[in-house]
């Protein structure tokens, strides 16, 4: 039977590291990290995310302010608010909940965030650094995939990794992080031919499609290590892209949904705010 990769356990370990960092700073009388998360309008998914981010941050001693803005806010007013946060030395991380209302220019707004406070790696500058292999705050979902593989001692160098999905927030950055770790990466998408054969040959399969239980026995082999990023609602339950129950005996390791990749993302975001505080104190973000 394949081994279950426990995202909750890994999240607990990282929370422990964050708590140590916070406790040390408290003992030294130093300032604690502060995140401001901006929500424009009342998208249900975004409200869920901002509340869970707040819960994790405050439980670890990281200050978390929600900036709740009307969906009809003018673009210039939102830009001004972000610039104010950029100039506030007590703010370490700025998050914008996506999607923004369609009348707002999402790219312009995101790229107003100072890269040194862009803890979710959404600005073009930080994404460029990521693609150049420079040090940068790693985007949380792709970083969750890498962190889980590393915590479970999965060697990446020279491994044949297949990523299904090429979105800017998951597929492409996770593929780039894997290349940065010396894996040999194939990116697949909806136009890929022979998807089953390509996946079956992979040592590691990262699935970020958004189609419940899409991956079955025909896509895997007995040594497959599978990272399931997908989250869809099926019969009222959050379900991954992989049909875990029916392939668990045919593979080597897999992340469950829930309790896998998604269990770690918020914790990694909070960890980035601690790094941002250190970067900003030492003013070495661009070095
Ligand atoms: P997305 O922007 O919709 O991208 C989906 C990708 O899957 C696209 O590249 C698409 O190909 C590809 N695809 C769709 N159907 C396919 C098929 N039949 N065969 C092969 N490829 C196919 O989604 P996303 O934002 O990357 O998110 C992917 C999933 O991850 C979603 O379920 C989302 O909810 C979940 N997610 C989870 C977390 C977490 O923390 N757990 C975070 C973010 C996202 P084309 O490019 O050709 O259209």
Automatic annotation (TrEMBL):
- What keywords is this UniProt entry annotated with? Amino-acid biosynthesis, Histidine biosynthesis, Hydrolase, Methionine biosynthesis, Multifunctional enzyme, NADP, One-carbon metabolism, Oxidoreductase, Purine biosynthesis
Q: Which PROSITE patterns match?
A: THF_DHG_CYH_1
Name of this protein: Bifunctional protein FolD
**According to its UniProt entry, what is the function of this protein?**
Catalyzes the oxidation of 5,10-methylenetetrahydrofolate to 5,10-methenyltetrahydrofolate and then the hydrolysis of 5,10-methenyltetrahydrofolate to 10-formyltetrahydrofolate.
- How does this polypeptide assemble, per the annotation? Homodimer.
| Stretches assigned to the Tetrahydrofolate dehydrogenase/cyclohydrolase catalytic domain | 5-120
- This protein's species is Clostridium gallinarum
- Gene3D superfamilies the record matches: Leucine Dehydrogenase, chain A, domain 1 (3.40.50.10860), NAD(P)-binding Rossmann-like Domain (3.40.50.720)
**Enzyme Commission numbers on file:** 1.5.1.5, 3.5.4.9
Organism domain of life: Bacteria
Pathway, per record: One-carbon metabolism; tetrahydrofolate interconversion
What Pfam families has UniProt attached to this entry?
Answer: THF_DHG_CYH (PF00763), THF_DHG_CYH_C (PF02882)
Name the chemical reaction catalysed here. (6R)-5,10-methylene-5,6,7,8-tetrahydrofolate + NADP(+) = (6R)-5,10-methenyltetrahydrofolate + NADPH; (6R)-5,10-methenyltetrahydrofolate + H2O = (6R)-10-formyltetrahydrofolate + H(+)
Q: Which family does it belong to?
A: Belongs to the tetrahydrofolate dehydrogenase/cyclohydrolase family.
Domain Tetrahydrofolate dehydrogenase/cyclohydrolase NAD(P)-binding: residue ranges: 139-279
UniProt: NADP(+) binding residues = 165-167, 231
Extract the CDD domains matched here.
NAD_bind_m-THF_DH_Cyclohyd
């Amino acid at each position: 039977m394949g081994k279950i990769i426990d995202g909750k356990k890994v999240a607990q370990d990282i929370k422990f590291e964050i708590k140590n960092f916070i406790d040390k700073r408290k003992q030294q009388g130093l300032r604690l990290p502060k995140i401001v998360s901006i929500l424009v309008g009342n998208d249900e998914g975004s409200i869920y995310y901002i509340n869970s981010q707040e819960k994790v941050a405050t439980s670890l001693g990281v200050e978390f302010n929600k900036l709740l803005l009307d969906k009809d806010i003018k673009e210039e007013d939102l830009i001004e608010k972000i610039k104010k946060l950029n100039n506030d030395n007590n703010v370490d991380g700025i998050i914008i909940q996506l999607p923004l209302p369609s009348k707002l220019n999402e790219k312009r707004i995101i790229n107003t965030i100072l890269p040194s406070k862009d803890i979710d790696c959404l600005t073009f500058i930080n994404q460029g650094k990521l693609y150049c292999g420079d040090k940068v705050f790693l985007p949380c979902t792709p970083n969750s995939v890498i962190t889980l593989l590393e915590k479970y001692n999965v060697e990446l160098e020279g491994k044949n990794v297949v990523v299904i999905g090429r979105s800017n927030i998951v597929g492409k950055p996770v593929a780039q992080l894997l290349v940065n770790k010396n894996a040999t990466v194939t990116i697949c998408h909806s136009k890929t031919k022979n998807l089953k054969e390509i996946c079956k040959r992979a040592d590691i399969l990262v699935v970020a499609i958004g189609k419940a239980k899409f991956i079955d026995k025909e896509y895997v082999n007995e040594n497959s290590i599978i990272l399931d990023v997908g989250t869809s609602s099926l019969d009222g339950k959050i379900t991954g892209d992989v049909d875990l129950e029916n392939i668990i005996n045919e593979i080597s390791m897999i992340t469950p949904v829930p309790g896998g990749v998604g269990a770690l993302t918020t914790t990694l975001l909070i960890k980035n705010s601690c790094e941002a505080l250190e970067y900003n104190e030492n003013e070495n973000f661009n070095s």
